[in-house]
Amino acid sequence: MKVNILMPVYNGENLLNCTINNILNQTYKDFTFIIVNDHSDDNTLNILNSHRDRTEKIKIVNSTNKKGIVAALNEGINHLDNDCEYVARMDCGDICTLDRIEKQVKFLDSNMNYVAVGSQFEIFCEEGNLGEGILRFQDYSNCICNYEDIKENYTVMAMFAHPTLMFRKAIFNIIGVYDEKYYPAEDYEIVSRLLTRNFKVHKIPEILVKCRFTPSEGISQVKRTEQVKVSLRIKLEFIKNNFLNVQNRKNVIIWGIKEFAGYLEEELRDPKYQAIVKCFTDFDETSWGKNKNGLPIISPEEVMRNITSDDIIITMWNIERERIISFLNENGLKRNKNYFVFS
Question: Is the pLDDT of residue 219 over 60?
């Protein structure tokens, strides 16, 4: 089949029927739906078997033990059809527009210099309201669609909801598969690998996927701190590989004084980054003169008075992101050269 739709699932009995029926009803029909059952212990396997008995479009891959999402995705890649050209991601519980696959195939067929395409998305939650952070991610990501803007803004936050993506199968032979050491941000990392290799990606400016957010089960809640720390490592590697002269040691000023800014300082202690954190800064006057992680917090004005060509600023405060960017631009600094936006 030309398209393989790849979905890992673990204990998905409550949502599986809805998602499978959604995929089977797609307007585009030349596909195999590869579902990796990660050793579920509920009724998932029976549901999968009942659908497979009714259609040849479903291929079930059963794990002999629970391996986790990264291993499940890679197991699915190992079972792609030989004649497959495109690999679309899907998550159990998510819902696509019925023409999602058709529109993404059309884009990749018509744009041979692109290796992946996503779409805008809508996050929904049936267990209460969505948090402000989730909505900020949705709104910011949906505003950025073309390749140049995606690469320019990639360190701010994930540019794609992963279940919206469709890849050319051949790209996995070039860059490799999902990397376990970047869990639980393996989806963020694999796209950064594409961009670092100068492969082009695009986002269709249309909501083609509705992504279910389940606070009681979501990776981002259960492993939030770990995900933030891994994402920081991906961002630092991204700027090192794409924007910085790695031969020169850099002095880093971190803009932000909250918890995540502290995580960034801790990560930058690794010698591989060739960086020394000098201080923190923030618009909050009450923080000036205090310390964070044993380093001084100084005013933005003092930073500007003393900044040198060997210094870079990394921003870590999304609430005032645009104000910070305006301040830095007004002081003659260049984005992705003198300063980098991480949040």
Answer: no
